[in-house]
Amino acid sequence: MKVHQLIAALKDMDQDLDVRFAYSFGDHWRTLVAAKVSEVDEGLVSYSEYHQMDQVEDSDERQDDLDVRKAVIIR
């Protein structure tokens, strides 16, 4: 998803609604939980073979050989 797509998805919603980030809790029942969003920032991500998805990079400790990209990070 790109920023313009997120803006378009949100523009007609009630602006007083709470925002949550949903993810699988990893339990036996595959519960989908919804954590509060506290920050929205630009950050750096790179693909992690171990996790099979992007991971957030610490700009102070990142390795120069990684394919690092800017992204909007929602926490």
Instruction: Please outline the major beta sheet.
Output: 3 strands, antiparallel
Computed structural class? mainly beta
Q: Which percent range describes the beta-strand content? A: 35-45%
Rounded radius of gyration (Å): 15 Å
DSSP helical segment count: 1
The rounded distance between the terminal residues' Cα atoms is 16 Å
Average pLDDT, rounded to a whole number, is 93
Question: How many domain regions?
Answer: 1
Helix percentage: 10-25%
SSE topology string: HEEEEE
Identify low-pLDDT runs.
Answer: none
Number of DSSP strands?
Answer: 5
Strand order in space, largest sheet: 4-3-5
The shape is globular
Description:
This protein is mainly β and 75 residues long. The chain has one helix at residues 3-10, and strands spanning 20-24, 32-36, 40-48, 53-57, 69-74. Helices cover 11% and strands 40% of the residues. The protein has a three-stranded antiparallel β-sheet, with no helix packed on it. The chain has a two-stranded antiparallel sheet with strand order 1-2. A hairpin with a 7-residue loop joins β1 and β2. It starts with a helix and ends with a strand.
